[in-house]
Design brief:
alpha/beta, eight-stranded parallel beta sheet, three-stranded antiparallel beta sheet, 12 helices, binds flavin mononucleotide
């Protein structure tokens, strides 16, 4: 099937910077696109909803001006995320703005709906839908999505529990369209590993939370830098859906991260605090197990350059090993 033209264009790195509730806005998205990776934000971050059109204007104009001023630069396209859940009462309004702006890539999460896919296809856009298992991947494609974002174990925010190797293999048995892999990818070697596993792109979230351009408070940025995988807590308490959060932020709200009560999907209201006073995402900070690879606070351009250097080194190392190990020789 190959990649649709919007995903087939040259990028600095095969990375889509994922949407981050409350944390990604125009500053972050512009910096991501202008560093040559696909940038994105949840439509819900533009508050009030009348701001969404202004944000899209700002990103489009800035990217166009940057491309004009830097003819050799790679400027990547951007994506808008729609939370397709009944608690999102802006869905229709935001879809109209997306269609008006002909947003090239729409990322749908927490629900797959044919009419959303049809609306995006009406102007030539594509839809990538995020899933946590092969069954949901089938449903997404049956309902008309163009590509799949496989959210494996260890991802920041709402996350699955399956191994990325298992998930990608099962999907690739029947789907040869655009496939993105996410879950604890915060190093250039891991970007290469995602491609080696069979994905077309790595989908990276937490690594961007600590960048200068992210709309995250300094304490959150620092906690990302200071934390490692064992400080990530998987709980459904805060939104009704299982997700990964920074242990330190749970403790700071007076909760015991080792004894959190269970919630359930009926409690789900994107951004709610479940049965706690703390507000998910605002007070309880989401992050994936890849935080151990994030050693310092950087600008987006520096982070992308670091990932790129690691990715190139990893590619060279692996190629060297393949050649040295004689695996290219026919079996005797
Ligand atoms: C703080 C935070 C907020 C997130 N908000 C959203 C969101 O609004 N919509 C969405 O589709 N995914 C959201 N995600 C999930 C990411 O899009 C992505 O799946 C995840 O960050 C990838 O794993 P990683 O963080 O380990 O790189 C969020 C993740 C984090 C850490």
């Amino acid at each position: 099937m190959g990649l649709p033209p919007v995903l087939a264009q040259r990028l600095s790195l095969p990375v889509v910077a994922s949407p981050l509730f409350l944390c990604s806005g125009p500053e972050l998205v512009k910096a991501e696109c202008q560093a040559g990776v696909i940038g994105s934000f949840p439509a819900l971050n533009a508050r009030p909803s009348s701001l969404l059109g202004d944000w899209l204007d700002e990103i489009e104009e800035s990217n166009a001006a940057y491309a004009l001023a830097n003819p050799g630069a790679i400027v990547a396209p951007f994506a808008v995320n729609q939370i397709v859940h009944r608690s999102n009462d802006r869905l229709e309004h935001d879809m109209n703005v997306i269609v008006e702006h002909k947003v090239p890539i729409v990322i749908t999460s927490l629900g797959a709906r044919p009419e959303i896919n049809d609306a995006v296809h009406s102007y030539g856009g594509i839809v990538l839908h995020d899933i946590i298992n092969n069954e949901f991947a089938h449903k997404a494609i049956d309902k008309g999505a163009d590509g799949i974002i496989a959210v494996a174990a260890g991802a920041g925010g709402h996350a699955g529990t399956q191994s990325p190797f298992a998930l990608v293999r099962e999907i690739r048995e029947w789907f040869d369209g655009p496939l993105l892999l996410s879950g604890a990818i915060a190093h250039g070697r891991s970007v290469l590993a995602a491609l080696a596993a069979g994905a077309d792109f790595a989908y990276v979230g937490s690594a961007f939370l600590s960048t200068d351009e992210a709309n995250t408070v300094p304490e959150y940025k620092q906690m990302i830098v200071d934390s490692s995988a064992s400080e990530i807590v998987y709980s459904n308490l805060f939104t009704g859906v299982h997700g990964n959060y920074l242990r330190g932020s749970i403790v700071a709200q007076g909760l015991d991260p080792d004894n959190l009560p269970e919630s359930d999907a009926s409690a789900m209201n994107f951004g709610s605090g479940g049965n706690t006073d703390a507000k998910a995402w605002k007070d309880i900070w989401g992050a994936g197990q890849g935080v151990g690879s994030i050693k310092e606070r950087l600008t987006v351009a520096q982070l992308v350059q670091t990932l790129k250097t690691q990715y190139v080194e990893a590619s060279q190392d692996l190629l060297g090993r393949v050649l040295a190990d004689d695996v290219l020789e026919p079996a005797h």
